[in-house]
Amino acid sequence: MKGSGLRLIIVALIVTGLYAWFGNAIPQSPWEAPKRKVITAEMTPRELAREGAAIYKKSGCGVCHSVVGERLRASDLSRIGAERNVEDLAAVLYSGADIMAPANKPPANLTDEEITALIAYLQSLGGRPKVRLGDVKAP
Ligand code: HEC
User: For the whole model, what pTM was predicted?
Assistant: First the structure.
């Protein structure tokens, strides 16, 4: 039987074609990786602080802390830059405090670079940002 081989190939092509068509017909939602700003060693403390302010916002720090002199669930941070040095800030951010999770763990899940930017921002509250990338040692 000469024709059956050809028929088999045609059937196989049709089946494959149907699968390909069906696969492409499934609607797909576009997936975008979460945007993380690249923090570089060239950034000045002020630039880091600006980035840190955005990180502060998106990390939900404001749920517990105020930066305008109010008492929320936790201490007001409006003068934290004057009150604490880099070591103190790094210690509390990396180890957490009371109900506050370490900043490098969920939910904030920040990188070392982001934590440095956050510290620059905290320094700007009641003081001047001074840290650069590499100044903060993760314990
Ligand atoms: C679930 C509530 C909560 C969240 C969210 C939270 N904190 Fe805290 N934080 C606390 C508590 C409680 C303390 C310890 C007691 C206090 O300072 O009120 C604390 C302490 C601190 C301190 C030390 C304050 C001091 O006077 O020494 C800093 C700095 C700080 N948090 C920054 C942050 C930053 C930055 C974020 C966001 C990444 C954050 N916190 C998120 C509750 C929270």
Answer: 0.80
